[in-house]
Amino acid sequence: MNLDWNHWQVFLALAEGGSTAAAARALGQTQPTLSRQLAALEAAAGLALFERHPRGLRLTAAGQELLPAACRMREAAQGLSLALAARDTSLAGTVRLTASEIVSAHFLPAALVPLRAAHPEIQIELVASNALEDLLARSADLAVRMTRPTEPALLTRRLADWPLGLYAHHDYLARHGMPTPATLAEHVWLGHDRSTQLIDGFRAGGVDVDREFFAWRCDNQLVNWEALRAGLGIGVGLRALAARDAALVPVLPEFVVPPLPLWLAAHRELRDTPRLRLVFEALVTAWSAGPA
Q1: Residues in contact with 240: Cβ distance below 8 Å, sequence separation at least 6, in sequence order
Q2: Where would you find the membrane-spanning parts of this chain (predicted)?
Q3: Residues 6+ apart with CB under 8 A from 263
């Protein structure tokens, strides 16, 4: 059969996502398009590769047998993509960068202003997301991460530790008073929905809390930041960002919030690509001394 890599990408996305909705999100396509590509693949292979069940899709026996070969096909395609990208010596082109929502909105634009002025031929494609984009799969060329990347194929650099603190709007404090270690439960806390990061942090500091301790729960950093600025409750924030808003007041100095490490990562095979190296060094220059 004539192997169409686009169809096998759909096969892998469905196998790993377990549903057309998950695969559509992963590939940036519509569900009808994926369904048509799957039908074309199954027709070309002469095999039923998936069967439906109440929660989505699962591989048939034939699909299970083909999955390892499809994974090897993806690895080969990624290797070819990296080899070609590493040979690109032109400054003109696109660098795909991923960073968290807060970093993307409040720190990244200013960090890239000098680069844009010096090298307007370099275009930036930004993925503003807290999800860990896969550099090995070329979902991004550069990643700004708050945890140390562990993949051995990545070139990483720790830029700085960004201090965090607990803050509340002065209007909130006027209504509820200044919190103390003895009155934590009497206040409105801004937390996460699915992430346990803040729960784990409180427990590590000796305060045993659960999900219900946080009366406001959202995993979107930008939404939580705006909720803090609106006076909805007490939350964790970057000191450099809080310093920009005179209405935000630091609270509970007794609780030391560990700083947020900032890492920059790229694939090792891309380190000699000139435009990628320029963007990498621009971020190192902007943030090695901390956020600005």
Answers
A1: 107, 162, 163, 290, 291, 292
A2: none
A3: 144, 145, 146, 147, 148, 149, 156, 157, 158, 159
Residue 91 CA, distance from chain mean position: 26
CB 133 within 8 A of CB 98: yes
Cα atoms found within 13 Å of the Cα of residue 222, Cβ hemisphere only: 12
The first and second tokens of residue 173, run together, are 């404090």
What confidence tier does 87 reach under pLDDT thresholds 50, 70, 90?
low
CA separation, residue 151 to residues 73, 129, 264, 267 (Å)? 20, 19, 13, 9
Separation between Cα atoms, residue 10 and residue 32, nearest integer Å: 12
pLDDT given at position 256: 87
Q: What is the pTM of this model?
A: 0.68
pLDDT at 146: 86
How many Å apart are CA 183 and CA 286, to the nearest integer?
A: 40
Of 6, 230, 248, whose CA–CA distance to 238 is shortest? 248
Cβ burial 218-231 (10 Å sphere, 16+ → b, else e): beebeebbebbbeb
Identical fold for domains 5-86 and 93-161+260-287, yes or no, is no
Task: Summarize the confidence of residues 192-198 as an average pLDDT.
Answer: 90
- Assigned fold of 93-161+260-287: D-Maltodextrin-Binding Protein; domain 2 (3.40.190)
Strands 50-53 and 56-59: antiparallel
* Residue 38 to residue 6: CA distance in whole angstroms: 10
Min mean pLDDT across 69-78, 99-108, 194-203, 208-217 is at: 69-78
